[in-house]
Amino acid sequence: MNHSTHTEPQDGKALTRLAVSATLHCLTGCAIGEVLGMVIGTALGWSDLQTIALAVALAFFF
């Protein structure tokens, strides 16, 4: 992928919009991983510690 044509935002509103977009993207992935980990761990009958470890690992993965 050629990134030479991408430009960084220069004004405050564009930079804020980029920061909000990146934060929401990150939080969405984290939420998906956490929920999926809790669902899988609960469905498999794992202990709390195992379920939490899976949820945290999937949150980082997503």
Head-to-tail CA distance between termini: 22 Å
Summarize the biggest pleated sheet: none
Overall domain count: 1
| Secondary structure tally, helices | 2
**Which structural class fits the helix and strand makeup?**
mainly alpha
* Overall pLDDT level: 89
Structure in words:
- The protein is built from two helices and no strands.
- With 62 residues, it is an all-alpha fold.
- The chain has one domain.
- Helix 1 (12-43) runs antiparallel to helix 2.
- The longest helix is centred in the middle third of the chain and has 32 residues, at 12-43.
- The chain starts with 11 loop residues before the first helix and ends with a helix.
Summarize the structure.
The chain has 2 helices and no strands.
Task: Give the secondary structure arrangement, pairings included.
Layout lengths: L11 H32 L4 H14 L1
Helix pairs in contact: 1-2
What attributes characterize this protein structure?
62 residues, mainly alpha, 2 helices, 0% strand, elongated
